[in-house]
Amino acid sequence: MPAAIGVKIAAPEKQTIVVCGDGAFQMTNNELSTMVEQGCDVKIDLLNNRTLGMVCELQRIAKRHKFAVALPDTPDFGKLADAFGVKSRRISQDADMTEAIAEMLAYDGPYLLECVVSEVENSKVNM
Hints:
By secondary structure, the chain is of the alpha/beta class. The protein has a single domain, classed as Rossmann fold. The protein is built from six helices and four strands; from the N terminus they run αβααβααβαβ. A four-stranded parallel sheet has the order 1-2-4-3, sandwiched between helices. The longest helix has 10 residues. The radius of gyration is 15 Å and the shape is globular. It starts with a helix and ends in an 11-residue tail after the last strand. The model has no long low-confidence stretch (mean pLDDT 86).
């Protein structure tokens, strides 16, 4: 998210979208304040699988025991966004994706689109 803010400030005419997992978002969600303060029209597509997805996937690929990757008690990201004055929407069905993305892109200002996904979904990368 910090990089997206820098991109948006450097090129305000460009559409700027962050795609991140819930673990990464929890490490940088304080930047919502900066987005609002700076008037950055940054869109956030948050993939919420309640895990540190990349670490979990790497452990799976290495055939290691999953360790320290579960995030079962994630906050209500919509309420968090609201606390910073950022519009948000939460979806959990593929059928809602097209409309939700259109709504996010049409909104003038920072926007958090939380997409609840299965914790077993992965990138399908064979390593």
